Amino acid sequence: MKKKVFITGGSGLLALNWALEMRDQYTIILGMHKRNVVLSSMDSQYCPLDPIDELTAYLDSTQPDIVIHTAGLTNVEECEANPELAQLVNVNLSENVAKACAKLKITHVHISTDHLFSGDKKLITEEESVAPLNVYAQTKAEAEQRVLDSNPDALIIRTNFYGWGPTYRQSFSDYIFTALSKGDNPTLYQDTFYTPILAGEVARTVHDLIKHHVNGIFNVVGDERLSKYEFGLKMASHFQFDSKLINPGFLADQSLMVRRPFDMSLSNKKTCQLLGRPIGGVDDHLQLLKQQQSKKISQEIMQL
Ligand SMILES: NC(=O)c1ccc[n+]([C@@H]2O[C@H](COP(=O)([O-])OP(=O)(O)OC[C@H]3O[C@@H](n4cnc5c(N)ncnc54)[C@H](OP(=O)(O)O)[C@@H]3O)[C@@H](O)[C@H]2O)c1
After folding, report:
1. Ligand 1 centre distance from Cα of residue 12 (Å)
2. Residue 299 — very low, low, confident or very high, per pLDDT cuts 50/70/90?
3. Which of 17, 188, 224, 246 is the most buried (most CB within 10 A)?
């Protein structure tokens, strides 16, 4: 029988891509909050993440084998403007999920971020101490600690992904794709570096990690560090857009934005060594993104 996977934040970018990538191998339940979203071959159910008694009762009756906690307040500017809400959603709800999974002995995956550091080092490993620059990063860093304290068996995944998004939640690749297809001039930063991964590949990699029965922090990112501008150039090339439309810009010039790290790149060495395989570079994953488009997988999400 297929194992049952319950995904919190079920209407979000990662959850939807995760569900589509893994629905043939697992029974998927998308956990909803305010927005209700339905995809074929899976259930969508409202699930309270607070208070903890209701969450525990829900999980006890649903009996998932694996819980993937993707729910969060992910907009950096919104977190800065609403620090109490960011604390509640990113920290308190994550702690609830960790405690409930520990109590019910459910395999628990907590989704964290590459945004936890000051941005003056590249290809950061899992051992590096966090140095958050903003409220989003502070709450995500605190969440990791609370999850580890509440459920030492939890798997914590630091990542930064892209993929086809619904109309109400565009990913970075959607932003570039839409702008270039309309002949607009997106500005992409030359001084911001990261190690992006296709969302579906996060899912595949995490399920491989789960099969190894590991816990603690793992970086699940692509094999290649590049700037956001360079990522845009690669997208233009893969989707046959005119790369000259892309405006090279600098994060350093954006004085009105919340402070962010210039370098968010993570090392995926620990994950790759454990799995005995690479995760894939940007060209590999952009090819997969293009295949998703031609297989119409993208439309299932984009029509939402
Ligand atoms: N996007 C990225 O590139 C990126 C990079 C690094 C790490 N991450 C991490 O990856 C995870 C998933 O990110 P994402 O971009 O897929 O998220 P997203 O698209 O912004 O979706 C967030 C989800 O959280 C739910 N949610 C918000 N408040 C909630 C609450 N109080 N109770 C229950 N659910 C709530 C939302 O439901 P409603 O819409 O119904 O409120 C939505 O389903 C997050 O933990 C994020 O920090 C994201």
Report:
1. 5
2. confident
3. 17
Which residue's alpha carbon is nearest to atom 43 within ligand 1?
Answer: 9
Within-domain flag for 242? no
d(CA 75, ligand 1 centre) in Å: 9
C-alpha 69 – ligand 1 centre gap (Å):
9
Number of structural domains (the chain) is 1
3-state secondary structure string across the chain? CCCEEEEECCCCHHHHHHHHHHCCCCEEEEEECCCCCCCCCCEEEECCCCCHHHHHHHHHHHCCCEEEECCCCCCHHHHHHCHHHHHHHHHHHHHHHHHHHHHHCCEEEEECCCCCCCCCCCCECCCCCCCCCCHHHHHHHHHHHHHHHHCCCCEEEECCEECCCCCCCCCHHHHHHHHHHCCCCCEEECCCEECCEEHHHHHHHHHHHHHCCCCEEEECCCCCCEEHHHHHHHHHHHCCCCHHHCEEECHHHCCCCCCCCCECCECCHHHHHHHCCCCCCHHHHHHHHHHHHHCCHHHHHHCC
**pLDDT tens string 88-137:** 999 999 999 999 999 999 999 999 999 999 999 999 999 999 999 999 99
User: Residue 218: which domain range?
Assistant: 4-171+195-226+266-286
Taking 90 as the threshold, does the pLDDT of residue 255 lie above it? no
Q: Ligand 1: does its nearest atom lie under 6 Å from the Cβ of 182?
A: no
Comparing 294 with 117, the larger pLDDT belongs to 117
Per-residue model confidence (pLDDT) at position 62: 97
Note whether residue 301 is domain-resident: no
- Looking at the domain assignment, is residue 131 inside a domain? yes
* CATH number where 142 lies: 3.40.50.720
